[in-house]
């Protein structure tokens, strides 16, 4: 095929390079194999690059022919061969020498390959009926003269298609055509021609041809003997493949087998050439046997296989038929003697052939045997096989002992041999009784169980499964009403559904094993174990319905070490309502333990599927029960188990099932609480809080709020009569405040948070650690609800003090919480413009993170980078630029050193460095960092625009400020415009603040350019955005926005625009509110403008506020020369 393809490729466009893998070094690299093929084809030592250079731009097409031969002949492990091809192609492409590669192989070795992603596989399908007819049309036309000369009819498609398994394969179709051409044997219309007859005739014809060709002039008797010798040798090859469990055999293995199983002498030669090996003589003469050659270490290695597996399977069946006939003949001809295990039964060859693999592993062998064995006296054959089975343990025939010596142990060979004897006995007699195999009057199940236990222990899993699929042991009652077995073969295409587990039949058996599942039913029916039958008998209907659920079985659960399956537990729960047992909690608890995340013996998908069914059953058992009946006493216990199950599932991330479990628990607690309001209050309250968390995780904020409100009412009722319930009330109120914040109910959030803090402060009877922990949590929530008001700072500071006290007693346990509290405090102080306090908090947080990082680097290395960046930012705002750069550089260095740090974190740190340098008056040093930050965030934005839009906008705004400082105004305008466009596409408080600052940066750029009218319009939009944000969030304007307004006002004032400057600075003073430092800064920015032009400034201020300028602006009066 590759030769034809190479010939058809257009020479100007392609350079075909055919590499027959059987002829090149098998252990060489791909390039070495290609160059070896080039040498064989051209006779020259030409390297691959040299050949490609001569191609004149044509695309090299490398055809690696016969990968299957390389693998089978050498036995080398080259499963990564295709991966090596991909790597070769990638390397060639990198060097500018792209190459296409085509690999041919038979599908027999596909399971030994790893296919790279994107690899295209093309399978050559067998002939269909139309293609068979087309092939025969060509054949008949080519042989028309021969048919006329010999008086033969053309080979018709109808005759060929009576044997579809052969006709569909081109080489085998050729074989059929050659066979029919001899005497039109396939066209005589003999409807009685069996499958076995066809193979017999084919093999006899080709064997006769080979004998006549190599040994001419033989008389008929000698010819017949030589034909049988040829077929015997072929059968030895077939058995060699069968016994080794594969479809091929190496030349060395076949030579060994022939030496151990053939009694005829080796062929002699008078020439100086080496005599042909047995493998060469057997295989080399028959074209329906495929030979694979490959070169390894300079030696040509060979393997063989039949072009169609059924040739080997027929030869196996044929040799067994012949040997059974010979043994029966010798046995019946022997003189009278002991009938049982008579030494005269010579079974050496049978034992050699039948002690390595089961006949049931190849269905075709059994089919052929069923046809062939009918030519013998089947009663005698069956009798012989039973005697061989009964004497198998004491057999003494050691002939053929060298065959496959060392491949298996005695006991394993004994297991395979006895199993094959039973198979053959059942085949020969149309079934065999247990009482025939084990005479003596006892129950046949006992020796049968012993025998099958031997098979189960020694025969491989797949082989044993095939045995139970194709051989069935039916439990019957004989004519004397005694229990018996009937062992028989089943239809492999449609195996009989087993059933009828009769305990009377098993009356005295004491075995205690059991299995579940469809496969286990079949094995149980075959092995005849009593406990197996007991469970199978009970589970059979359920397995028919819930078969997949019963696939995972026999796993250890529970303290009683009982073995259960998910299906068994579901069955017990389902059946429990119809039994006298009133309390199903034990069943549910076992189910939850088995199906929960802790039991990793069962695949999670199976557990979750079964868990859904179990949770549905709860509705029927309790939640959906008759409301007029009393609530069962065990209901709270079941609800508690569901809560535990919820916690396990939630921790493992199985959110949907966790939610279902806690919903069921809440439903059960509500039923109990509805019948008795004092019952299960704490449990219901806690379950409601857990359910609210599930709602939050799934974005159902309103449902979460309603659930928490119900929990708070329960906790308030509990706390009214029990002071020990106060901590949980405080935590519930904290949760309520959090839920109100999530739905923008800020006033309600403040009310709930204040109440939570009040409750927490009153925890005088709680232990100090609990009180401090609960109070700190509640204070944090109160600060969040107060939204940066001055009171919020006090709450956060108190929270920090509480955690600092806890950490003093237990540093390892509380330092992480203290660190989080300090970060919150630092942010809030920075938001309000209290920069010194913000820096102190962030520096203390940094010192904690450094200590934590030394103890657990993996856990804290990212937090350390974040803390360093925060400290650098706070230092820069206070003008401590050198210290700020040191911290920033350390953060950046850690980011660059650690490949696990996300790109956005590095981008943020670089942006901080740019801002530090900009504020230090070094815009030229700030520019590279600002540009890098933009590049990093742009790469993230290009991949995921929605996630990284705001971050890119912030980086662009920072770049704009730097460019304004460098007076690169065109680029500054572009950066500001892109930043604003990005932020306008966003929604949310955070993007609103960024948009305000971006608009102010654009305004500054316009002012510097002298585009004052445009700047004034942008300033109006910035003020409107800021006002909208202030109204929407109900929060004070952050220090960052106020500072940006002051900076913009100062710049506008210096450009001679007093009205615009006053408008900006008046808003800055208004937004500063109680923050004196910001008010002072705004006044100080306004004073220079007033000093230059007092009247316009005073008029603009009076217009904006209705009053006069602040004293700080006019202190000392205007200049004398004004």
TrEMBL record:
<dbReference type="InterPro" id="IPR011990">
    <property type="entry name" value="TPR-like_helical_dom_sf"/>
</dbReference>
<feature type="region of interest" description="Disordered">
    <location>
        <begin position="1102"/>
        <end position="1122"/>
    </location>
</feature>
<dbReference type="InterPro" id="IPR019734">
    <property type="entry name" value="TPR_rpt"/>
</dbReference>
<protein>
    <recommendedName>
        <fullName>Tetratricopeptide repeat protein</fullName>
    </recommendedName>
</protein>
<dbReference type="Pfam" id="PF13374">
    <property type="entry name" value="TPR_10"/>
</dbReference>
């Amino acid at each position: 095929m590759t030769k034809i393809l190479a010939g058809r490729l257009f020479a100007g466009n392609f350079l075909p390079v055919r590499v027959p893998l059987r002829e090149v070094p098998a252990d060489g690299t791909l390039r070495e194999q290609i160059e070896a093929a080039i040498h064989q084809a051209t006779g020259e030592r030409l390297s691959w690059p040299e050949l490609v250079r001569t191609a004149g731009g044509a695309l090299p097409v490398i055809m690696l022919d016969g990968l299957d031969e390389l693998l089978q002949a050498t036995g080398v492990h080259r499963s990564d061969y295709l991966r090596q091809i991909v790597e070769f192609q990638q390397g060639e492409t990198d060097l500018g020498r792209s190459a296409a590669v085509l690999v041919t192989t038979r599908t027999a070795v596909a399971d030994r390959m790893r296919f790279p992603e994107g690899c295209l596989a093309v399978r050559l399908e067998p002939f269909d009926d139309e293609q068979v007819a087309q092939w025969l049309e060509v054949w008949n036309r080519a042989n028309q003269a021969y048919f006329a000369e010999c008086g033969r009819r053309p080979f018709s498609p109808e005759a060929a298609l009576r044997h579809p398994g052969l006709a569909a394969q081109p080489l085998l179709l050729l074989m059929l055509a050659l066979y029919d051409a001899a005497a039109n044997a396939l066209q005589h219309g003999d409807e009685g021609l069996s499958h076995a007859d066809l193979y017999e005739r084919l093999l006899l014809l080709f064997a006769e041809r080979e004998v006549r060709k190599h040994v001419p002039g033989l008389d008929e008797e000698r010819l017949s003997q030589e034909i049988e010798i040829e077929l015997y040798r072929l059968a030895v090859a077939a058995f060699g493949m069968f016994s080794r469990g594969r479809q091929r055999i190496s030349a060395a293995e076949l030579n060994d087998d022939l030496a151990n199983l053939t009694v005829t002498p080796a062929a002699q030669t008078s020439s100086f050439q080496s005599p042909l090996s047995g493998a060469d003589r057997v295989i080399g003469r028959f074209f329906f046997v495929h030979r694979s050659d490959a070169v390894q270490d300079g030696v040509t290695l060979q393997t063989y296989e039949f072009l169609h597996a059924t040739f080997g399977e027929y030869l196996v069946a044929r040799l067994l038929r012949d040997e059974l006939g010979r043994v029966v003949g010798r046995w019946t001809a022997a003189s009278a003697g002991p009938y049982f295990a008579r030494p005269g039964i010579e079974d050496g060859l049978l034992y050699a052939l039948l002690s390595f693999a089961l006949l049931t592993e190849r269905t075709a062998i059994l089919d052929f045997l069923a046809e062939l064995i009918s030519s013998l006296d089947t009663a005698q054959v069956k009798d012989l096989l039973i005697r061989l089975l009964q004497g198998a343990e004491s057999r003494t025939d050691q002939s053929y002992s060298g065959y496959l010596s060392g491949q298996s142990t005695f006991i394993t060979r004994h297991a395979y041999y006895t199993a094959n004897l039973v198979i053959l006995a059942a085949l020969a007699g149309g079934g065999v009784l247990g009482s025939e195999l084990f005479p003596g009057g006892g129950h046949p199940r006992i020796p049968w169980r012993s025998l099958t236990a031997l098979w189960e222990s020694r025969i491989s899993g797949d082989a044993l499964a095939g045995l139970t699929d194709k051989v069935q042991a039916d439990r019957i009652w004989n004519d004397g009403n005694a229990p018996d077995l009937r062992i028989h073969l089943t239809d492999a295409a449609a195996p009989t559904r087993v059933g009828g587990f009769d305990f009377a039949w098993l009356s005295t058996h004491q075995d205690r094993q059991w299995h579940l599942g469809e496969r286990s039913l079949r094995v149980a029916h075959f092995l005849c174990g009593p406990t197996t039958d007991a469970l199978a008998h009970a589970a059979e209907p359920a397995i028919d319905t819930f078969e997949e659920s019963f696939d995972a079985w026999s796993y250890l659960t529970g303290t009683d070490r009982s073995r259960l399956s998910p299906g068994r537990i579901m069955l017990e729960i389902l059946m429990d309502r119809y039994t006298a047992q009133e309390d199903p909690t034990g069943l549910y608890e076992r189910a939850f333990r088995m199906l929960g995340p802790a039991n990793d013996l069962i695949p999670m998908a199976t557990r979750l599927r079964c868990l859904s069914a179990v949770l549905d059953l709860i509705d029927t058992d309790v939640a959906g029960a008759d409301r007029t009946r009393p609530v069962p006493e065990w209901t709270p216990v079941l609800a508690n188990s569901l809560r535990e199950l919820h916690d396990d599932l939630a921790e493992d991330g199985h959110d949907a099932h966790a939610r279902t479990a806690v919903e069921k628990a809440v439903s059960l607690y509500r039923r109990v609480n509805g019948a008795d309001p004092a019952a299960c209050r704490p449990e219901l309250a806690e379950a409601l809080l857990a359910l609210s968390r599930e709602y939050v995780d799934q974005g159902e904020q309103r449902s979460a709020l309603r659930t928490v409100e119900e929990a708070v009412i329960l906790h308030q009722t509990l706390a009214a009569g029990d002071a020990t319930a106060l901590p949980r009330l405080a935590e519930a109120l904290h949760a309520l405040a959090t839920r109100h914040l999530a739905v923008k109910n800020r006033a309600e959030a403040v009310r709930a948070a204040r109440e939570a803090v009040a409750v927490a402060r009153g925890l005088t009877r709680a232990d100090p650690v609990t009180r401090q922990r609960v109070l700190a949590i509640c204070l944090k929530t109160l600060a969040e609800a107060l939204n940066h008001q001055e009171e919020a700072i006090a709450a956060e500071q108190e929270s920090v003090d509480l955690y600092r006290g806890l950490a003093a007693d237990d540093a390892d346990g509380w330092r992480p919480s203290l660190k989080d509290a300090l970060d919150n405090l630092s942010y809030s102080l920075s938001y309000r413009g209290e920069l010194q306090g913000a820096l102190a908090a962030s520096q203390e947080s940094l010192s904690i993170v450094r200590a934590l990082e030394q103890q657990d680097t993996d856990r804290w290395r990212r937090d350390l980078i974040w803390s360093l960046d925060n400290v650098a930012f706070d230092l820069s705002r206070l003008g401590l630029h050198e210290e700020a750069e040191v911290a920033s550089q350390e953060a950046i260095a850690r980011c660059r050193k650690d490949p696990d740090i996300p790109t956005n974190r590095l981008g943020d740190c670089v942006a901080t460095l740019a801002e530090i340098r900009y504020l230090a008056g070094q815009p030229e040093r700030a520019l590279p960092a600002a540009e890098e930050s933009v590049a990093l965030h742009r790469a993230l934005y290009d991949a995921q625009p929605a996630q990284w839009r705001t971050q890119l906008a912030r980086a662009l705004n920072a770049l704009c400020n730097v460019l304004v400082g460098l007076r690169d105004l065109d680029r500054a305008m572009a950066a500001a415009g892109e930043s604003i466009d990005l932020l306008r596409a966003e929604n949310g408080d955070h993007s609103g603040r960024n948009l305000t600052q971006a608009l102010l940066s654009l305004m500054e750029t316009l002012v510097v350019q002298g585009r004052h009218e445009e700047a004034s319009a942008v300033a109006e939009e910035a003020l409107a955005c800021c006002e909208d944000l202030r109204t929407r969030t109900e929060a004070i304007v952050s220090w960052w926005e106020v500072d940006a307004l002051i900076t913009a006002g100062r710049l506008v004032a210096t450009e001679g625009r007093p009205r615009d400057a006053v408008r900006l600075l008046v808003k800055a003073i208004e937004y500063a509110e109680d923050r004196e430092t910001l008010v002072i800064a705004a006044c100080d920015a306004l004073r220079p403008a007033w000093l230059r032009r007092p009247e316009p400034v005073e008029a603009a201020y009076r217009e904006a506020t209705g009053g006069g300028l602040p004293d700080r602006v006019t202190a000392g009066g205007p200049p004398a020369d004004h």
